[in-house]
Design goal:
InterPro entries: Lfuc_symporter_FucP (IPR005275), MFS (IPR011701), MFS_trans_sf (IPR036259), MFS_TsgA-like (IPR050375). This is MFS transporter, FHS family, L-fucose permease. Pfam families: MFS_1. With 443 residues, this protein is an all-alpha fold. It has a single domain, classed as MFS general substrate transporter like domains (Growth Hormone, Chain: A), CATH 1.20.1250. The chain is 76% helix and 1% strand. It is built from 20 helices and two strands. A two-stranded antiparallel sheet has the order 1-2. Helix 4 runs antiparallel to helix 9, helix 5 runs antiparallel to helix 9 and helix 11 runs antiparallel to helix 16. The two termini are 22 Å apart.
């Protein structure tokens, strides 16, 4: 007679269709991330910006997450996850469509505004979708289920980068000119107008596609998931969460992780520029990074069946630290290979930190806690800006001076390295103080 407990199902057949629909959102915000990263370099060239000025693209993009995550959570305290998702898709579409008037005005701030509104929508989507996925089944498989859903995020990343590379970067006239700033003003105006239209097009098409997805969600019935009883105040809930070390330290881990991810993906173009590799060719390296990210996410999700989340997070972070050191101190193409390789080890981090931080929380706490974790995406706004300032330290180039014997662009990757050190510590902390303790108790 087999007395062993029944193994919990990761995704029940009853909620398979809603799970697939919500999981598709992970690819959608991955697309937005990937199609936007190369725009930093594109705007820098066509609008003649410095590295730190061009980083306002990321400041607007990830700043929108920070500003809207908490309002999104407050909204979903009163309304359903589905309603939050619909609001998110709507704002996502509006932000993307704002690129149409932005291209007409040719104002950098207008493009940034479009990205800012777009990420209002992404904040709603992530604040709703992540805890919704966690709630779609047994708590014991919640982190595994979230990693499964997050495995589709890299598909969006690859699609977004493909669009950016094939339909934007390859068609930018300014990228074919070695010294764009040296052109006559009349020539620059013509090229600028053409290039901004090229940048505009994928966002406008994306906005129209999102309107169709909005209709699809309206037409489908989604499972409800609500706590019973009265809801405590949001301040009280935050107070409880901040006393939860696993959660509070997890928010900080998420801040530094997102910062590290965006730095590694944004400045791969500047790193390539320093070794005389074009933006289009650099796009292929980023594509390789996204493929490794996809593979790493799949392998990481599989490994979670056999090892604890904290331990695996620590191990992946240690490898990321080694790669970041290689990026800093090994110049040339080999350093670029290390930069690409980091993506494999980053792949596990976001959903694993997310799942660990929200583990054992009530649904009400998860809704508010999810907002804190999405607000943590502000790391993607602040840290790339700081890295851009390091790169600009010697001038608007990427290798104007050397720091510790390496070009400034190489040295700037000290920021991701420090981020991975903290994440490794967090993984070790979770493994030593929570997971080992839990296993011992269960024995």
């Amino acid at each position: 007679m087999n007395n062993s407990p029944e193994k919990p199902v990761v995704v029940s057949k009853k909620i398979l269709v809603p799970f697939i629909l919500v999981t598709s959102l992970f690819a959608l915000w991955g697309f937005a991330n990937a199609v936007t990263d190369p725009m930093v370099q594109a705007f820098k060239k066509v609008l003649e910006l410095s590295n730190s000025q061009a980083a306002w693209v990321q400041m607007a993009f990830y700043g929108g997450y920070f500003c809207m995550a908490l309002p999104a959570a407050m909204f979903m305290r009163k309304y359903s996850y589905k309603t939050g998702i619909l609001i998110g898709i709507g704002l996502y579409a509006v932000g993307a469509l704002l690129f149409y008037p932005a291209a007409i005005t040719e104002q950098f701030w207008f493009f940034c505004l479009g990205l800012y509104v777009l990420t209002f929508g992404l904040a709603f989507l992530e604040t709703a979708a992540n805890p919704y996925i966690l709630a779609m089944g047994d708590k014991r498989t919640a982190t595994q289920r979230l990693n499964l859903a997050q495995a589709f995020n890299p598909i969006g990343l690859i699609a977004g980068l493909f669009v950016a590379q094939q339909f934007v970067l390859k068609n930018l006239q300014s990228d074919d000119i070695a010294d764009f700033s040296a052109l006559e003003e009349a020539s620059k105006v013509l090229i600028r107008t053409s290039d901004l239209l090229v940048i505009r097009n994928p966002y406008v098409i994306l906005g129209l596609v999102l309107l169709g997805i909005f209709v699809l969600f309206v037409m489908n019935k989604m499972p409800q998931s609500k706590d019973e009883g009265a809801m405590p105040s949001i301040g009280k809930t935050f107070g409880i969460l901040l006393k939860n070390k696993k959660y509070a330290l997890g928010v900080l881990a998420q801040i530094v992780y997102v910062g590290a991810q965006i730095m590694c993906w944004t400045y791969i173009y500047q790193y390539a520029e320093a070794i005389q590799i074009s933006a289009v060719t650099a796009g292929y390296y980023q594509m390789a990074a996204f493929i490794l990210f996809t593979v790493g996410r799949a392998i990481g999700t599989y490994l979670l069946r056999f090892t604890s989340a904290g331990k695996l997070l620590m191990l992946f972070s240690l490898f990321a630290i080694a790669c970041a050191a290689g990026v800093m101190f090994i110049e040339g193409v080999l350093g670029l290979y290390f930069l690409v390789a980091i993506s494999f080890f980053m792949s596990l981090m976001f959903p694993t930190i997310y799942g660990i931080a929200l583990e054992d929380l009530t649904e009400e706490q998860s809704k508010v806690g999810s907002a804190g974790l999405i607000m943590a995406i502000v790391g993607g706004a602040l840290m790339p800006k700081a890295q851009g300032m390091i790169i600009d330290y010697g001038g608007n180039g990427v290798a104007d001076l050397q720091i510790l014997g390496v070009a400034e662009v190489n040295f700037s990757f000290i920021l991701p390295l420090f981020c991975f050190i903290y994440i490794a510590w967090y993984g070790r902390h979770i493994f030593k103080h929570h997971e080992v303790k839990t296993v011992t108790t269960s024995l």
